[in-house]
Structure prediction request, 460 residues.
Amino acid sequence: MATDTGLARDLAALVGPGHVRTDAGALTAYGRDATPLFHALPQAVVLPGSTEEVAAVLRYATEHRVPVVPRGAGSNLCAATVPLTGGIVLVLTRLNTILEVSSEELLARVQTGVSTAALADAAAARGLLYAPDPGSRTVSTVGGNVATCAGGLRGLKYGVTRNYVLGLEAVLPTGEIIRTGGRLWKDVAGYDLTRLLTGSEGTLAVITEATVALLPAPEESGTGVAYFDSLADASRAVADVISAGIVPATLEFLDRKCIAAVEEFAGLGLRQDAGALLLFGDDGAPPTVAANLARIQEVCADAGALETTLAEDVARADALLAARRCSLPALSRLGSLTILEDATVPRHRQAEMVDRIDEIAARHDLLIATFGHAGDGNLHPTCVLDPEDTEGADRAHRAFAEIFAAAIAMDGTITGEHGVGAAKLPYLADRIGADQMALLRRVKTAFDPAGILNPGKLGS
Prediction:
């Protein structure tokens, strides 16, 4: 491997000296992402301006056996972009052009440094909807969403990122530029490499462009909230809503601890004597939306809701959605270190899972609040700590190991939308088994024979 000075000089020749950073500030900043307790220093930070420059960097890295960690905004919560073995952090945020929005074909083509919100806004300006809606949408990039197969608040009705990726431009570690998929909803020519790269967390190739499907924007949307004595009651309401044939656009929950934190943070007038809050919403044709919201209210009342209320206008609906979106910053005010995790269980077992989380938290003497996507069983247990409390951090790691084991025992999974990264890698074999782990490693070797791309993650 080249010396740090030689590496910087060589990379500058490929992308220009203004786009290579080796100063201590940049190395420190790009040595971490949004995941707490994970940090490692790279040797260089490189910001390519084109697919061809990405290819040149990867060819160099393969030849010289330099690790490369692809990165967008670094907003992921699984340490997927932490450079565990040093090397190059390849930052793709300069690739930030929306290349096309087609109303006729219901698709968009974007470079992968485009933010999710920018893509959504460009689609909305044409009367279209880009459905994936991760909580980090204002900062996260399309490439990062594809790499981690991001979910979001609309996942129950609309699905997750992989449901909208039609095609990708990607650079293999050896420098070849490939295009997978294309502009079609139906295309079964060869292996589905588009799906394989979606969720591969930068371990197989560097994604530089995405073609994504769009939908006609719904005519109307509405939002409501229901309060329950317990999450068990709220979970029964969720099951009853789905059984009634309604698939809402939004079906989210906050537990008692989250309600209190959000209300203190945002002052939205939430009811704090409730054990759980269920946020529900729908979109579509106005008569359908009105009928579905009214029916959800009835189902919640039958399930024992303390109160149900529909937002009277867009401003109030936005405020209710903000209550869900601000759960993390609200909880973060309770301590200076916040560990936000995700685990998913079948819908009918989520109340049992929250009770299990509470039992584990109490036994380890931890504050863990839980919110999440009630419609698909995706839970976000969130632990708040003092960063100086190293013994507390150790207890948190042990607690989360038990939480992931509990999710697997309930026919669930260790991550529904955040990804595996370095944070969840110790638990991956428990979820998928030794044979699949071996298969992941064979796939990884086929794409990346030198093992340079995001080492220490997934199949590495």
The longest strand covers residues 220-228. The radius of gyration is 22 Å.
